[in-house]
Amino acid sequence: xxxxxxxxxxxxxxxxxxxxxxxxxxxxxGMGFEDVRTYLQSGNVVFRAPIATASAPAPAAPxxxxxxxLAASIEKRIADDLGVPCTVLMRTGDSLARTLAANPYLGRExxxxxLHVTFLAQEPxxxxxxxxxxxxxETAVFTLVGDEIHLHVPDGYGRTKLNNTFIERHxxxxxxxxxWRTVTALHELAxxx
Length: 193
Prior knowledge:
The protein is 32% helix and 24% strand. By secondary structure, the chain is α+β, with helices and mostly antiparallel strands. It has 2 domains: 2-94, Alpha-Beta Plaits (2-Layer Sandwich); 97-191, Alpha-Beta Plaits (2-Layer Sandwich), CATH 3.30.70. It has a 4-stranded antiparallel beta sheet with strand order 2-3-1-4, sandwiched between helices. Strands 6-7-5-8 form a 4-stranded antiparallel beta sheet. Helix 1 crosses helix 2 (67-82) and helix 3 packs across helix 6 (180-191).
């Protein structure tokens, strides 16, 4: 069994696309996932499922799919069962541990509210990455590490132009952003700390 973290983009923000966390937990449990837990109202689900294998029969049972296929099946079930279209990005407990270790701004910033991680649907190509630059006059900075962008926003995330919409538009891919406290809490849920 592997611990997965499903990061849902665009739910329970600004009063639209509302999903109760108890309904989300029930949906994941109904898909056959185990130890389903949610964190906050913004769509963070930690669950356990069988490890994906290349030799899994087609169609693979839920949880034995590759993470991208698993995300797609969860998106479909949320849309079909709860009537809410949303983007789901998947991470594992191990990959989230690497995210924590890779943050280049931890030593520079004492306030975790000024640190964020944008999780990308895939690792950008060199051409895509070259399109991402800090907007003029911006105090925020970023570091691309694989399929994640670490952000340091000294003036606060609500004031930066280097936000999720900006990143999605410039990279041409789906993404979702979480603050550092949430990333840390999800890691703790995933590892049982």
